[in-house]
């Protein structure tokens, strides 16, 4: 079929009926290779668990709360009680940070596709990273002391090009291990040409 032909454009010169056109579309959709998504379909995105948001918000409250108390005491003792009101600035920053952390958490998501892994993040500057399975050299699961306390782990993907390295933070440890094993298996299969 040529581009611009009446069959392809759907103009008044199109002699096919709606049912025939739909059958042709279904036939083309069915002829795609196995394991790939049909053109125009959205991948199945997976968001991050709420434990990551709770951990980040708790850290925000603890650190800025300590800063507010310390600043209030220091200014109250050295400059007088009127200056201690500046300790409210970290509290205002806490309220703003609370909202921003929620927006950032909602922006993180990932999708496993047939040939690559998509990672999307960012509120103002949207960033989407595509990591082909065949380019992955190392997939590791890390969990620091605070993450372990909250039952979280991160998956770090290393590729041949440092620009395409990616991280998925705040996953449940079981999901992080499942993702590591699956990505490692798919990476080995793609690099071997299977």
Account of the 3D structure:
46% of the residues lie in helices and 20% in strands. It has helices at residues 6-9, 18-30, 50-78, 88-107, 145-149, 173-191; strands at 46-47, 109-112, 116-121, 127-132, 136-142, 153-159, 166-171. Helix 3 runs antiparallel to helix 4 (88-107). The longest helix is centred in the first third of the chain and has 29 residues, at 50-78. The protein is elongated, with a radius of gyration of 26 Å. The two termini are 32 Å apart.
Can you describe this structure in just a few lines?
With 194 residues, the chain is an alpha+beta fold.
Q: Summarize the biggest pleated sheet.
A: 4 strands, antiparallel
Which ranges are low-confidence, i.e. pLDDT below 50, for 5 or more consecutive residues?
A: 1-36
- Rounded to the nearest angstrom, the distance between the terminal CA atoms is 32 Å
Cα Rg: 26 Å
Helix content: 40-55%
User: Into which percentage range does the β-strand content fall?
Assistant: 15-25%
Order of helices and strands: HHEHHEEEEHEEH
What is the number of helical segments per DSSP (H or I, 4+ residues)?
Answer: 6
Strand order of the largest sheet: 1-2-3-4
The beta-strand count equals 7
Q: Which outline best applies?
A: elongated
Specify the structural class: alpha+beta
Averaged pLDDT, please? 79
Key phrases:
single chain; 194 residues; alpha+beta; four-stranded antiparallel sheet; three-stranded antiparallel sheet; 20% strand; disordered N terminus
